[in-house]
Structure formats: C-alpha cells, structure tokens
Amino acid sequence: MTAPDARWTLAVDHGTSETVGAWADVDPRDGWVRVGPVEVDGATSMPSAVLSRTDGTVLAGRPALEAGALDPAAALLRSRPHLGASTGGPPELLTRWPRPTTAVDVATALIAKLVHAEAGRRGTLPSLVVLLHPASWSSPACEALRAAGRAALAAIPYTSPDQVELLDGPRAAAHRLGGHGRLLVVDLGGAATELAVVDRSGDGSSSIAAVSTVNVGAEVLDDALAQLVLDRAPAPFAARVRFGGDLEAHRAWYRLRRSVREAKETLAATGSVTVPLPMLPPEPPAGVVTLTHGDLGAMLAPGLEEIAQGITALVGTLTGPRPGMLVRGGLAAMPRVREWLAERTGFGLAHGGDPGAVSAFGPASGAAAWAAERLGLGLGRQ
Fold first, then answer.
1. Cβ atoms within 10 A of the Cβ of 110, count?
2. What does DSSP assign to residue 90?
3. Does domain 4-179+354-374 have CATH number 3.30.70.260?
4. Nearest of 265, 269, 256 to residue 330 by alpha carbon
5. Mean pLDDT in each 10-residue stretch from start to end of the chain (382 residues)?
C-alpha cells in the first residue's frame, strides 16, 4: 500500500448486532464528493462478532459468527454495550479463553477488517477514519473506541493516530439527511434505542440539543422470540437447551438465536414462518415451531409504546417548533414501525426522499462525507 490518499475517507459504525462501513471520495468525472458502502465477505454489513482460536487466529464478522456455531464459548457477540460502559480504568475482560479479550479488542478487530477491506480494494489508505458512537456515551467510552481505532491502524504502515476521529451517530445521520433546523433522530439499535435532538445550522455544522436512551432494542426482542420458540418446543428439548449446560446445549441455543433473527426479518413481510429447532445430539431432530406476525406484534408493541413515551418526554423539555423525526435502525425496517411512531407522537417523518438516510448505511455514509468536507475534498456533496 502507498501512503495515505487524500482523496478518500472511511467511516465505521460498530453496532451491537452489525458493523457497517462507508467511504467517501472525489468523483474524477466532476469533482463532487460521492459515498458508498464498504463490502466485506460479499455483503455491505457484517455481524459484530469476533472469535479467537487456540492457534492465535482471530476471526471477525461473518466467519466468526459461523465458527461460533461449533465453539459458542469462544464467540464474542453483542460486546458494544461493554465498550459503552468503559470508565477509564482497566478494560473489562469479556473472556480469558482461548485468549484474554476485551470490548476494545473486539472493536479493534472489526474496525481493522473494514479498513483492510476497503484499503485493499483501492490499494491506498484513507486520509481519515471516522468512528461512530452513541451521543449518550461518556468521555471514557469514547476514548475506549478511539483506542480501538488507533490499535487497528497501528498495525498498518504509513498510518498515524491522528487519522482517527469520532462523531456521534445522530449528527452523522443528520449530515446524511442534509437540511437545516431541528431534527429528532430515533435510532432503534440492537441493545437500546437512542433518542437525540440535533440542531442543524445552515453551514453544515450541528450540535446535540438533548439526548436520552430507552432500554428497548432488537437483541432483547430476539431473546424473547427465542424463548417463545422454546415454550412451544418439546419440553425435554427446551429444558436441555435452557438448563443442560453442556456443549451441545450451548450450540443449540447459539443456532436457535441465529434462526430466530432470520425468522424475525421474514416475519416483517409475511404472516408466519417456521423456525427449525437445532440438532441436539444424541437426540433425533425435534421438528419446527411456527411464529406468526401476531407473535411478533405482541412482543414489539410494548417496546414501541415505551419509545413513544420517551420521545414525548425528551422533546417536551425543549422550546421552539416541533422537529421532523428520522427513525432508523434494524427494527425500523419492519412494516409500519416508522408510521406508528409518527402517528403516536405527532411528529412528521423526515427522510428527504433519500432511502439511504434511514438505512443501516446512513450514519456511516454521513460520517464519511462529513470527514471529506472537513478535509476540503472535492466540491462538496451533490
């Protein structure tokens, strides 16, 4: 690779469930800044999973998630809340086997994979790497994320710690959307839902006017659906998965959680779906369990009501005109979630006709463009 290339930037959004990346560069045809997703393992997002092997190999993303089906104890999933809980002291050990690993180590592996993927595709290095974080994170949590980014770059020649910048997710999402004035960003995340009011000025800068967190997230819903599947499964199978404690029981729970997540995504568009129960040797296959759209709705409705109440409480503390509302995150992709929140709270939906603004790629692309503009690349965004 060559020295840092001033023609492109990279942004990484390390979420609880998924990690995505976006690049921004200058279109050689007209000089405008353009953005696009980073592709890793054939997809534009990767599971936020890391797995270490006894031989020293560290897997990140989809290979780690798949390897975890055989060795679930070695797979680290949903580690970002541990990163967010950093206090500035020694980092918490998430596991000691097969190697001591912290949430900073997990973030480092995921960031490094995205940097290598896009830099390898281009043959050059980015001039700036922007790492996204919730607006509600403390300074120690942000510094832990910065440490992960610097560790990822430290192993790459011609890079510098100064190439790492941080930006909170709501301002990144607002930057992707564009416009000016007040905007309410509702991020339905994996671990929780963050509500943030962003004040956007005419010059493209922005600030956080208010922020709060609601403890409703996609991972909690997945856990509840998995427990519902076990409730409907044969009793001996369910008891062993829940209480067996043996390796095969751990493997079965790991596979069931993956199957339930896929089923949830299917249920968003269909009336019902069958979830195959994972193998649990030496027993024969236990069959399938059916989940319906009604099952999903019954579990989702209380969480959406809690989010709506959180929105009302947060914005009720502010003066001035009611902001538009940008609803994004994994749960927002389900039918009528955005519309229900808008009807329940009375806030108009803001997406500017740009479907990318509400996608998983939205904040990362906004952050990459923000970095490009900070560096004075190109003529700005079209």
1. 28
2. S
3. no
4. 265
5. 71 97 91 93 96 90 96 93 93 86 96 97 95 97 97 93 97 93 95 96 90 95 96 96 95 96 86 94 92 91 96 89 90 88 93 78 95 86 60
